[in-house]
């Protein structure tokens, strides 16, 4: 519940008046013998002491630290977005900068399966190189259906490195495949080198992923997420909520969901946090899991 202050107690009013007087006297002394400046300070101080203005001063004093903190985070958000935009970076570029900062740090974990940032980079590069070698190029669309696991994010991250996915531009001359193909061996044999040439062709405005809505306000539909939009809402949520690189985030949500798979994994890929996943949400094991993984942030 938000408390609205309309009238101060005697103690609060005394504090507010005392602060106004102290600030006014201090500024007046700093003005020295400048009578005009002292007169202006006196008039402003007198103005603030009359009517209901001590209440306004008190409220400003109470909320100023919060507002300054949010302002700093907002400036930080815009700084990084502008920096990445000027550099022509996509999500893949930003992630590689995170990997260079701490390649051996734990990025993703589910049960006892752990992937470091370098592991994620290597696997996503293998995905990119493998599908590019098959003939997939910028503008093709690939459907992803997987259970919750660290490799889920590596798949779409790798695919995004070789281009956006637009269903209106699906190549018609790709070989038709029936049945299933085991990707484990194929990806293991693929190169872990960064597909730098393909990545540098990408732009922030390129489509990166389609994520289907749950149909809360209508039929399920594909939301178009570009690199720029993805970076904006991930960093917006991260910076404005004070997420730090040292945080361990517990995420039991499905990775096909915007909250779990986009914003959740995005804090790992763009901000360098560590994320602990779960195959399926469990209410009975929720707090046990949080304690076990020493989570500092819970996503739910």
Number-wise, the strands total 7
**Beginning-to-end CA distance, first to last residue:** 21 Å
Please name the fourth-level CATH homologous superfamily of the largest domain.
Answer: ANL, N-terminal domain
Question: What class would the helix/strand composition place it in?
Answer: alpha/beta
How much of the sequence lies in strands comes to 5-15%
What can you tell me about this protein's structure?
The chain has helices spanning 10-30, 35-49, 53-87, 91-101, 117-134, 150-161, 183-189, 196-200, 227-240, 258-271, 286-293, and strands spanning 106-110, 113-116, 207-212, 222-226, 248-251, 274-277, 297-298. It has 300 residues and is α/β, with parallel strands linked by helices. Strands 2-1-6-5-7 form a 5-stranded mixed beta sheet, with helices on both faces. The chain is elongated. Residues 1-5 and 166-174 have low confidence and may be disordered. Residues 95-163, 196-297 form the AMP-dependent synthetase/ligase domain.
Spell out the blueprint of helices and strands.
Elements: H1 10-30, H2 35-49, H3 53-87, H4 91-101, E1 106-110, E2 113-116, H5 117-134, H6 150-161, H7 183-189, H8 196-200, E3 207-212, E4 222-226, H9 227-240, E5 248-251, H10 258-271, E6 274-277, H11 286-293, E7 297-298
Parallel strand pairs: 1-6, 5-6, 5-7
Antiparallel strand pairs: 1-2, 3-4
